[in-house]
Amino acid sequence: MAGIPGEVRPDRTGPDGGRPSTPGEFAGIGMVLSGVLSILQGIAGVARDRLFGTPTHYEYRFDLTSWGWIHLVVGVALLVVGAALLRRVPWSRSAGLALASISLVSQFMFVPYYPVWCIAVMVLDLMVLWTLARLAD
Fold this sequence. Notes:
The protein is mainly alpha-helical and 137 residues long. Helix content is 64%, strand content 0%.
């Protein structure tokens, strides 16, 4: 329905429109989401080794349980640093840059096992890296 010209609609989503108000909040939300996805990936690797495909000729071919633990540890660390970013803790920006880089590399190395999931998490990690790199100190 069209509104009346000059009519002011009440804001139903809150003062900020339901969006992150700062780039730090955007990065924090992205890190928390990346952490949750990495934790789910890690749990799947630890609990069900047969979920992922196994490439035959791959240099970084570890046992899938090992990859699961790697993703689980990185995911928990992403959650912690993402929560710290949302709370505006001073050390969280530099820790976020380092941890998002580690997550990006680990997802890149895991691409032959589960490509679509890894690429989605890699895109999220890249957005977090770009946002944190653009933040002013």
